[in-house]
Amino acid sequence: MHELSLSSAIVDTVERHADGRRVTTVTMTIGSLRQVVAESLSFYFEIVSRGRVCEGATLEQNYVEARVRCVPCDRGWTLDQPIFRCPDCGGSEIEVLSGEEFEVDSIDVTEEEAACIAPR
């Protein structure tokens, strides 16, 4: 259920940067270690954005797999399971290379059409 608070944070961030313009698309990068359920995030984003500049906007979610590296032996691998031990040397001094991301990469906005001031 933490997707509700995450959605609120996304909408707040988008509003700060949209400068009052209508938002059509929000693109995110989300690491697999964040344990975000994509469908829940989209569901809550739709609810939280009601009545705000990103109401009706599409939430694009790009997921990044978790990659780690063993510091002592320098072996890197993709985490399939949350086991933070090196499969080669058994070491537990692990550096996370990717998978912790939770970033708004971009927002697409529409420019409001200026009212026509030409004489009729």
Brief summary:
This protein is of the alpha+beta class. 23% of the residues lie in helices and 32% in strands.
Main attributes of the structure:
120 residues; 3-stranded antiparallel sheet; single chain; hypothetical protein PF0899 fold; alpha+beta; 23% helix; 3-stranded mixed sheet; elongated; 32% strand
How would you portray this structure in words?
There is one protein chain. Strand 1 (22-31), helix 2 (38-48) and strand 2 form a beta-alpha-beta unit. By secondary structure, the protein is α+β, with helices and mostly antiparallel strands. The model has no long low-confidence stretch (mean pLDDT 91). The strands form two sheets. It has a three-stranded mixed sheet, covered by helices on one side. The protein has a single domain (2-110), classed as 2-Layer Sandwich (hypothetical protein PF0899 fold), CATH 3.30.2320. The N and C termini lie far apart (55 Å). Helix 1 (2-18) packs across helix 2. The protein is built from two helices and six strands. The longest helix has 17 residues, at 2-18.
